[in-house]
Amino acid sequence: MTTIVALSIQAILVLILSPLSIGLVRWFKARLQGRRGAPPWLVYTALLTTLKKQNVMSESASWIFRFVPFVVLGMAVFLVISLPLLFLNGGLPQIDLFVLAGVLSLGSVFLVLGGLDAATAFGGMGASREMTIAALIEPVALVAFSAFAVVAGSSSVQDIFGNGMSIFSHPALVLSFAALILVALAENARYPVDNPATHLELTMVHEAMVLEYSGPYLALLEYASSIKLTVFLVLLGNLVWVKPSVSLDFGTVGLAVAGVLLTLIVGSAALALLESSIAKMRFFRLQEYMSVAFFLALSGFILVFLL
Asked: What tens digit of pLDDT does each residue of 185-208 get?
């Protein structure tokens, strides 16, 4: 019963705070660039406004186009409930690492199908670029997570992220953690891989696939994107500091919630600083970016056995 209540608290907290992470990144970027910026909570208003608008769809769109937003959102919610984000030994039991990687890939595949189903030039271009990036991301993510699995002695997500595992558990995990940061940037369509605020043909990847969506469907996709970013920020933060054990007393829950909030604030500020300091990389240079990530992940994986 305690585990179910703790999982419910985690799911509700992350789902409520997810749009705030996008708002914090935008607000920090505005401050770093000398602008006042919109308040972070304006994202909630924008989502509600989009949710009330009418859907406008291409004549060639099929049931796949309508189905994609729900699948992508479902995959994001699955990440929230499967990973131990708030407490130690939290999340769904017996979720394998490769199942988690498959869920991430499945969300990308359905997003690509939605971009292709609209039969537009932008959608096809974005889908092609997304599949290229996904083919480069997945090996890096698997190798990086495998290093943590070797140290934990299990491929279970709960054993890797729910038993106090951190980058201080083994010296080589620092390299794997650096690779995961690069993977998180690519997986969430952030600089230098993608620009989430652009609508220019030469730079669009994620935005090209969702360009034909509007109204509630667009709101679902944007909400799913914010959930995914929040999960990655909290997961990376949990690899630096240790979460409290599952307990429903007020002090433990308050400490866990404060830890998530602090992680989101620090992670959003760090992401904003990074995106204000670098330019978007050319698409044909992404293999160099992912080669660096793969070298870091592979080095960490090998050093786990040697050290």
From this structure: 999 999 999 988 776 666 778 888
Domain count, the chain: 1
Cα 297 to Cα 23, 130, 172, 175, distances in angstroms = 31, 21, 9, 6
Cβ(260)–Cβ(16) below 8 Å: no
236 and 184 Cβ atoms separated by less than 8 Å: yes
Q: Is the dihedral of CA 211, 277, 166, 169 positive or negative?
A: positive
pLDDT in tens, 20-62: 999 999 999 999 999 998 999 999 999 999 999 999 888 888 9
| Rounded-to-5 percentages of helix, strand, coil across the chain | 70, 0, 30
Tell me the per-residue pLDDT of 82-93, one tens digit each, with 9 for 90 and over: 999 998 877 777
What distances in angstroms separate CA 165 from CA 147, 183, 247, one per listed residue? Answer: 12, 19, 19
Task: Print the domain residue range for 228.
Answer: 2-306
